[in-house]
Amino acid sequence: MASIFTRIINRELPAYIVAEDDRFIAFLDVMPLVQGHTLVVPKTEVDYIFNLDANMLADLMVFAQRVAKAVEKSISCKRIGVAVIGLEVPHTHVHLVPLNTMNDINFTMPKLKLPTETMQAIADRIKANLQS
Known about the structure:
Layout: H1 4-9, E1 17-20, E2 24-28, E3 38-42, H2 54-74, E4 79-83, E5 94-99, H3 116-131
Helix pairs in contact: 2-3
């Protein structure tokens, strides 16, 4: 059965997509820790990040770096935190989390529920900053 991320990649489920190429996609987490929390995902469904081949892993991080710089330009923060947990969805994904405090990347904290308009505005800002 396809993961929820594969279903997003295949456009079977909606998402606030901020970046995409032939091998990777980045979209806003719909239950973010903070505004701008973005997921970076390879289009190939591999459960565990360290099961990716070395080139794919390196390219994933380069793609994530480009997205992180756009998120940082779009969201007021001190820096972008990176986390790979991989227990929630059996499809490799990198969390990019705008940070102002250590607690901003605490996955035990309650998640935000942002209005559609806010999510779309954040996605639009990130996309615009990818172009600049």
